[in-house]
Amino acid sequence: MHPRSALVVAEKEQISNSEGGRSSDVFEQAIFTAAKWPTDVDPDTASAYLKNGVLTLTVKRATASESDAESKRTAQKAK
Question: How far apart are CA 27 and CA 57, in angstroms?
Fold first, then answer.
């Protein structure tokens, strides 16, 4: 989670039994996606939940002082 974006990583595992119940097939899938916010957000307020196959991300907008502080930290790291 960052002030301008979030990276979402999920894994899904599905097990199916073969005929006769002798063996099973395991299917694993990894999903990666990114969410970009139109304005700076406060990463500390982020939450997420999954319901009926729909992922909902919630985050509060950053105040002006939080946005300024993040910009300064980014500028210092770039030096």
Answer: 26
| Cβ–Cβ under 8 Å, residues 26 and 12 | no
Enclosing H/E stretch for 62 = none
Q: Picking from 24-28, 42-46, 60-64, which range would have the lowest pLDDT averaged per residue?
A: 24-28
**Per residue in 6-41, pLDDT tens?**
999 988 888 777 666 566 777 888 889 998 999 999
Give the total number of structural domains in the chain.
1
The dihedrals phi and psi of 18, each to the nearest 5 degrees, come to -80, 170
Specify the residue for token string 């990114």.
34
Q: Which residues pair with 14 in a beta bridge?
A: 27
Q: In terms of residue numbers, what domain contains 23?
A: 5-78
